[in-house]
Amino acid sequence: MNRITLFRLMLLASLAVPTSAYAQADGASAARDSEIVVTATKREQTLLDVPLSVAAVSGEGMEAMGIRQFNDLQSSVPNLQIDQTNGNFVVSMRGLGSGGGNLAFEQSVGFFIDGVYSGRSRSMQTAMMDVARVEVVRGPQGALFGKNTNAGAISVISRAPTRQFEAQLRGRYEFENDGYGGGGFVSGPLTDSLSTRLSFQAGHEGGYMYNRVTRRDDNSNNNMGIRGQLLFEPAGGGGSILFKAEYAENNYKGGNLTYNGLGNCVFCDQIRAASAAVGGPPERPSFERAQSSAYPEFSRTNNLNLTVTAKLDLGGGFELSSISGYQRLRARTQNDIDISPIAFSDSIHTENSSQLSQEIRVAGAVGPVDLIVGGSYFYARSDILQEIYWNGADKVLTPPIGPLLQGTARLPFHQTSEALSPFAAIDWHLTDALTFSGSLRYNHESKQARVAGEMSVLAYPSYVFIRSRSEALWDYSAKLSYKFGPSAQVYVSYATGSKGGGYVSNDSRLGLTGRVEFEPERARSWEAGAKLRLLDNRLHLNMAAFTTDFTNLQVSSFTGSSFTTGNAAEARSRGIEGDAALRIGDMLTIGGSLAYLDAYYTDYPGAACTYDAPAGCTTMNLAGYRLTRAPKWKWNSYAEVRVPVASDWALTGRVAADYTGTSIYQDDRHPNNIMPGYTKLDARLALASEANDLEVALIGRNLTNKVSFSQSFGVPLVAGSWAVFVNPSRTIALEVTKGF
């Protein structure tokens, strides 16, 4: 048995019988004007004390804003964009992220659940269930968080077991799309040293995409989740051990893909005729929440997480922390590529992936220096299969093209990856006010892959690539912060981040191009910021200015027949962001955020041509062109009022507006691949009694029913046509919450 295999077995055993302990912070805010405690620097600190651009949303805050899914977070976090496409989440931070075209892509924004890195974006489908807080850290975080955080990191922290009994039940009915759901938790002590917490939720989200063929609303979602935790705290103190097991399912029925413009090709006319027979043309002057697919579309995902989080007091002010994690993800998605009643082209892709991770660190202080030293191990295995069926190409396309495209493309992809990463971080308090913070991480990662294409489609040759690669990357950061007393801090920082290279999983043209690999991308960023607490802590201000340079930016773009993945040479993102909250008296709070972003390629030779390029263009340099998923302006504003209406009852009202500027979704810059700027309006009205621990709330999201999309691309072989993934419609829900 080799050493790596032995190490994996030992790590699996540690999930069952850990030898060290760690106690989680609950992170709950005690009052509306108090600071949320965060762990973005692997230490417990208030937002005021962290020399980073961090946005933290408490569980109570998410409930007040009606946030139930991860993509709802972007409405309250500046320079964050989360798009859901075909079951996956595509996350961009400050205009930088990884597209959704390559199914094997790892995100440039790292996602962490209770300290465990999650390598697959589908794991973000898990509902926001019994969450203490979500921390969003912007900018490269390679030294602090590790691999694949060169644009930022999102960290979700669950509520931990409590020493006092508490319980809650929640029920919800949504009127617009006939959705419903419920959930809750039970928490408390079992013995003097054992506490437990059980959290659960289940629901049905009604569909919002009308299907003219089936006469039903598509893209409904049945979901469920359950989480159990057991916390052991020895009576004599000295440490603790937290076990967590979590399982979640999401089952989408029907798709949210529709045409945004149909071309003038022969097949286009056939689609128009077939669609007219079922009640309408497939396109309007602008896209809408309707489609005409006869193919049974679905997306199913289940996710299992096991975590052991522990802490041991070593004495002398030093603590040993350990986080062991295992994740298993299963997914299957079926799509109608031509989005029409014609049985022309369909696809199915399945994914089976698992990962194992371990982090160990020691934290303590030596004189004026706070330090952390540790290391992490990560192993992942992914099996992805995409099958594309060209069922009717010979019937709808004239020879010789039609017969060439009749058949099946089967694209199996297998990859294993392994990484070892030692790291260290210090906070050196030069004076009571001035602190230098530095961190350093070395990451060695190896990947092995088998990339294949089994083609009965004559237009594309079959292929098999068996490749392996190994990379050694250094990341580091340096920060200088100065505190003007207990209510103000300024800082300046320099940080790097990296994302490993990899392989293309689902490009049927690989047999022609041979471009199966892409290289690691690197980020280097300067940032300066200020955090202020003014007017007797009633006014909170956070602001930051930044510039980030990317080299070998990994991109996935549509070429007209398929998505291709590669590296753009260089890109730059610079801008400002800030948020503010002001409490006026005891009843009114107003606030908001603003982000300005200038993100563009500084060099991108060999890119596909833009739609308006001169005739004969084959490739071009996109230097100076704006990055995709990088709106120039984003802002949100809100007002919340709380009015006592009886001795123990209070009425709370909140209204919020969220603006997203123009977003480009493909590098060809065609107008149909651009989402114009838009504003969404949300509101919440709640009546609550603290004595009865009861709340009744009416929650509305996207109240103006604004139609927007989260991805756009040209439809393969339907010349001059575009398709978009449409975002959810208006929802109005009645929610009742009872505590015990």
TrEMBL record:
GO CC field: cell outer membrane
Database matches in InterPro entries: Beta-barrel_TonB, Beta-barrel_TonB_sf, Plug_dom, TonB-dep_rcpt-like
Membrane topology: Multi-pass membrane protein
Gene3D superfamilies: TonB-dependent receptor, beta-barrel domain (2.40.170.20)
Domain TonB-dependent receptor plug, residue spans: 47-153
Compartmental location: Cell outer membrane
This protein's record includes keyword Transmembrane: yes
GO biological process, one term: iron ion transport
Family assignment from sequence similarity: Belongs to the TonB-dependent receptor family.
Matches recorded under PANTHER family: FERRICHROME IRON RECEPTOR-RELATED (PTHR32552), TONB-DEPENDENT OUTER MEMBRANE RECEPTOR (PTHR32552:SF81)
Record's protein name: TonB-dependent receptor
